[in-house]
Amino acid sequence: MESTAKSEITIQGIAASRGIAYGQVFLYLQSELEIPQYTVDSDKRVAEVARFEQALLVTRQQISQIQAQVTKNLGEEEALIFDAHQMVLEDQALIGETIRDFQKTGLNIETCFNAVAQRYIQAFAEIDDEYLRERAADIKDVAKRVLHVLLGQSAMSLTELVDKRIIVAQDISPSEAAGIDRSAALGIVTDAGSRTSHAVIVARSMKIPAVVGTKDLTTKLKNDDWVMVDGYDGCVIINPTEQTLFRYGKIRKAKQSFETRLMSVNELAAETLDGVAVSLRANIEKPDEVALVQQYRAAGVGLYRTEFLFLSAPRIPTEEQQYAAYREIVGGLAPAPVTIRTLDVGGDKPLPGDPHLIGPEANPFLGFRAIRMCLENPAMFKNQLRAILRASAHGKVEMMYPMISGPEELDRANALLAEAKAELTERGQAFDGQMSVGAMIEIPSAAIAGDLLAGRCDFFSIGTNDLIQYLLAIDRGNSRIAHLYDPTHPAVLRTLKQIVDTGHAHKLKVSVCGEMAGDSIYVPLLLGLGVDELSMTPTLLPSVKFIIRAMKMSDAKALATEALQQTDARKTYALVEAFFNERVKAE
Ligand code: PEP
Ligand code: MG
Questions:
Q1: Are 340 and 302 in contact (CB under 8 A)?
Q2: Which of 210, 239, 268 is the last residue of a domain?
């Protein structure tokens, strides 16, 4: 067997999408194009321009074909990116400047087009705004296609992947990720990226194992090499030996039967061995996930990230459009409760419908994000508040504000909510006057001054993704420091305890809706700390329910007490892991 002839190498990265894959490598290297430079004879210049126009046309057709394929494979929303690409091809400034350069210099059209495109890419890439930087990626993507057509070369494309392979790339752009055929990709590995990069989100939604942050793996591999992708432990094994294959074969079988075991609790109650019922809810991004919430038997939605409605639309959605989406979710799940979070754009989520509303920032995660942006744009914010209130007439809505930093912000948000209510009353439109209003606790100041927030809202929902990022000063999207992002850090545990205790002292429900809530290893710790409710990606519900059904709440409380006494995060993790393993094995 080929793999045994070479030595086995294990490369550690970051686990990004669960599962194990073994197969041959499809090395996706976006090499630099060699562009010849020459002068075009004056009698051939009209033909040269026509050649350019023809290339634009062919590229347009290529993109339409990919768009159709992506729509078929992944759905319309994922194919939207190609609208932006078609717009680049229709950009009169880019085309006009290329032709003007050509007429001035007489240099071949590839040279002129490349120079103009590079100027645009450079200009966009230097802007300190994620959204505009993404436009640079679009131009780069499209310019490469046009140049390939002009040079008569076929562009390397992930859509060409037809046999079952493991894609290994330096990075995968959103449009490339969207073009991956789920039946042809066994696994995805990227040298760059973090758990939140676009390729990973696509991999997770397609249930393909993925590992990211492998640094320079692409330089160590050739096409057709055999690799094992371990999406559980986040490693890639090059040329695995027979023993490794055997071990992984067993692991894969064990994991598969474990997944089956997990699903066996799907229909059962989320109740501990000593009879404590735990409320488990789902995090959703789109109305079409209502079916998943029901399939995984969530008690409701604990976090509906409304920004995805804004991120996928070409313009900021109107009150009516928002109302329609919220109503679909609320009505679809009634009488189960749905926690709608008001708009959380900014940070890593720019607003495509109005990129200028946020604009370039040096530190977007510390910038004009979420509730800060909404309070400065009260008309837009009240559109959303009215839409949410109107949806509350169709079921049970709870609403929460993201990124609250202190009482003043909460007061201002609530004042706008009161105005929105008065406006609906004036219009004669129905809403639930008793709708619960919560504050997300995800900024350290909110945790420290929690008692000042408690009298101003009905519940707390802890956003551990941001809370940990801000507490430990670890950018949640940066693969270089991802290993420092530690939920068992003593400061994190103390902060969680403080939030829970403050909430309970004021008789508020305290839930957790960050990723930590869906990681079954941390579930006993969170429940032991006194968290009342957990909300997670719907597909993770069975694994969380499984550990809840295998533990006693009294033991979880003892675990939390012991964890709070630790000074070393690694020891805490070891405790938490041992607690988990003992219970899961005993089942
Ligand atoms: C969080 O910060 O934990 C959270 C749930 O919100 P988001 O991931 O959308 O920032
Ligand atoms: Mg957050």
A1: no
A2: 239
Question: Which residues are annotated as catalytic?
Answer: 198, 513
Using the 3D structure, point to which of 119, 151, 183 is the last residue of a domain.
151
pTM reported for the whole predicted model: 0.69
pLDDT at 448 over 70: yes
Average of per-residue pLDDT across 170-178: 67
Q: Nearest bound ligand to CA 487?
A: 1
Name residues whose C-beta falls within 8 Å of residue 293's C-beta, 6 or more positions apart in sequence.
Answer: 282, 284, 300, 301, 333, 336, 538
Ligand 1 within 6 A of 463 CB?
yes
- 76 lies in the same domain as 140: yes
pLDDT higher at 184 or 157:
184
Tell me the pLDDT tens digit for each residue of 386-444: 999 999 999 999 999 999 999 999 999 999 999 999 999 999 999 999 999 999 999 99
> Could you tell me if the CB of 307 is within 6 A of ligand 1?
no
- Parent domain of 79: 42-151
Alpha-carbon radius of gyration of the chain: 26
User: Which residues have beta carbons under 5 A from ligand 2 (an ion)?
Assistant: 442, 463, 466
Could you tell me if 226 and 126 lie in one domain? Answer: no
| Mean pLDDT to the nearest integer, 206-220 | 88
Question: What are the tens digits of pLDDT across the range 134-150?
Answer: 677 778 878 888 988 88
Q: Are residues 216 and 351 in the same domain?
A: no
CA distance 160 to 30: 14
Same domain, 86 and 171: no
To test the pocket of ligand 1, the residue of 403, 440, 496 to mutate (highest count of ligand atoms within 8 Å of its CB) is 440
Give the residue whose CA is nearest to atom 1 of ligand 1. Answer: 463
